[in-house]
Amino acid sequence: MILRSLYGKTAFVTTEGKIEEVRRSLAAIAAKRKLNPAVLLEGIDTLPVDVVPLVIYRKAWETASKRIGPRDPTDTDLLALGLALQIPIWSQDKDFEGCGVKIYTTEQMLPFIE
Fold it and tell me: Are 67 and 100 in contact (CB under 8 A)?
């Protein structure tokens, strides 16, 4: 997920690939935490997150692939989005370190979450 500030408000954007990745992981998360997966899926659909179309970050894809692809090619889309929009990424993933965008951990993000 990526953070950007619009009109003094915090907004979050991501890629379709990341939303699908979360959806695929929900069954395991639900089982581990003894939660209803249907409720989690419904929650994903109501998150205040804008899914940005590939056309917006396609030009940054090659650069992102060179920077993060050797470590974790599944994160290329998110890095490309961060590079294209010149905004930080919210992640605990160490693979983003040194990729040319600011990274915020969850702890650092807590003050931004309303």
Answer: yes
Position 113 scores a pLDDT of: 67
8: alpha, beta or left, given left = phi > 0 and alpha = psi -120 to 50? left
Residue type, 92: Q
Q: What is Dmax (Cα atoms) for the chain?
A: 42
Question: Hey, where are the domains in the chain?
Answer: 2-14+49-112
Task: Please state the pTM of the whole predicted model.
Answer: 0.81
Assess contact for 84 and 63: CB atoms under 8 A.
no
The amino acid that residue 106 corresponds to is T
Q: How does pLDDT run across 8-46, given as a tens digit for each residue?
A: 566 789 999 998 888 888 888 888 888 888 888 887 778
Report the C-alpha gap between 72 and 99 in whole angstroms: 12
